[in-house]
Design a protein that fits this description.
Layout: H1 2-19, E1 32-36, H2 37-48, H3 55-60, E2 72-78, H4 79-82, H5 90-117, H6 143-146, E3 151-157, E4 162-169, E5 176-178, E6 202-203, H7 209-212, E7 217-220, E8 223-229, E9 235-247, E10 250-264, E11 272-275, H8 283-286, E12 292-295, E13 305-309, E14 318-325, E15 328-334, E16 336-341, E17 344-345, E18 363-365, E19 372-375, H9 376-388, E20 395-396, E21 405-407, E22 413-417, E23 419-423, E24 427-430, E25 437-439, E26 445-448, E27 450-453, E28 458-460, E29 468-473, E30 478-483
Parallel strand pairs: 4-11, 5-10, 18-28, 19-27
Antiparallel strand pairs: 1-22, 2-3, 2-13, 3-4, 3-9, 5-11, 6-9, 7-8, 8-9, 9-10, 12-13, 12-29, 14-15, 14-30, 16-17, 16-23, 20-21, 21-26, 23-24, 25-26, 29-30
The structure holds 2-acetamido-2-deoxy-beta-D-glucopyranose (NAG) (3 copies).
One 2-acetamido-2-deoxy-beta-D-glucopyranose (NAG) binds next to helix 9.
Length: 486
Amino acid sequence: MALMVSLCCYILFTLLSYSAHSRSVPTTTSKTTVLDVAASIQDTLNAVSSQYSGATQSLTQQHQTLSVSSSLSLPLHSRVSLQQHSHPDYKSLLAARLARDSARVRSLSTRLDLAVRGIATSDLKPVDENFGTHEFEGPVVSGTSQGSGEYFSRVGIGKPPSQVYVVLDTGSDVSWVQCAPCADCYQQADPIFEPAASASYAPLSCESTRCESLDVFECRNNTCLYEVAYGDGSYTVGDFVTETISIGGESVKDVAIGCGHTNEGLFVGAAGLLGLGGGTLSFPSQLNATSFSYCLVNRDSDSASTLEFNSAIPHNTVTAPLRRNPQLDTFYYVGLTGISVSGELIKTPNTAFKIDENGNGGIIIDSGTAVTRLQAETYDALRSAFVNGTQGLQSTSGVALFDACYDLASMKTVDVPAVSFHFEDGKELALPAKNYLIPVDSQGTFCFAFAPTSAGMSIIGNVQQQGTRVSFDTANSVVGFSADQC
Ligand SMILES: *[C@@H]1O[C@H](CO)[C@@H](O)[C@H](O)[C@H]1NC(C)=O
Ligand SMILES: *[C@@H]1O[C@H](CO)[C@@H](O)[C@H](O)[C@H]1NC(C)=O
Ligand SMILES: *[C@@H]1O[C@H](CO)[C@@H](O)[C@H](O)[C@H]1NC(C)=O
């Protein structure tokens, strides 16, 4: 009897929560949008050609300053623009990208899992491959062999400043660079940072608030040692110190960073990482920035954009609530209410995008994850709606984690179902077609770039953020999405 009651209530609940969302959206957006197939294929060819001469070329590009005087702005580059043409073809480039992507999702998922269970991340090292959530098929390739990081900026460390590349990461807080003397440093493009050559280098004491704010620290000789493990095989260990960081011609003194003597995992020439998360030790927090924003340029191009601090949100920005997880202050959650395909909201459980009392659920925006991950039920509904809307297209077999793929080789452009994210107060972010139907080779195979996950949270990835300025207004708890503001 009890079983029947709960079963009946479950069904009723399910029906109620579904019906709440099964309606069409009053929207001015059309039901379809155009994908420029030829342009996307050309991008895949450029990404693996030798036309990009690596870092030096991007460095010489002058970035546009969109900012007001009190803001800080620095150029931002995609991985493709820093990496020499290291892949024979686009298929191979994509395979490497998707392997990194799975490692990234595992790492974020593990971080949340541990926070929810109240365990520090130090317990991750050495990395237990069986730990955390498993993502799809494909060989388990750790971040160690692939190299983490999809977007990069150049910053100055110390006084006088040494210019180095750093990975931009919204999924972690502690910034760090590889430091001499190296017990174990991976290869980087710029010289290893020499603390002895910097007049502004100062170790932090173990009693300092900033040392105690670390998830994992140790005291040696009364100086603070830090350790950060990313859960994908990458980690860094060394002295926690204060340094001057120079960005875009401005210097910020007394920023707590890691001076890593033992580092594993990050390649692509970057010297370290700039932590852009929401925690107290992140770079924006230490800067007392009220906001920051980035625009992730096309991942297959070598064009540059900017990372900005304290600049005003552009006009014509779609805004959404920025939410925090009481269990973990690093991640940026967004108040997504629904996703539509062809102007119809897909049916999702009411709880699809909500953070529960334990700290699970919700959807974060991440700079380092490529493909947007959704809970299985939500993904299935999205995929079904998209596939239903593409019956006129030649479908083809799945590729890697993608299970809705099309052969568009014979087309120059094609109309595809419009896909939008929806936020409170009827706000809608219509995604450009190329942000969800992406090439997987240079022969015209395209796949729907969303995927299911069993991770504790959903993730809006950088494929879906391409060409959009994403602003994190932490002072007002608002996330802004501005189309074409790179
Ligand atoms: C401890 O600090 C002293 C003085 O700063 C230094 O000479 C010594 O080498 C340090 N010991 C260790 C183990 O780092
Ligand atoms: C940020 O605020 C703290 C506390 O008020 C202050 O100590 C620190 O110097 C400020 N940092 C910057 C870069 O303004
Ligand atoms: C499938 O698409 C047709 C139009 O092509 C539409 O009328 C129908 O409602 C769709 N069905 C679902 C379940 O989305």
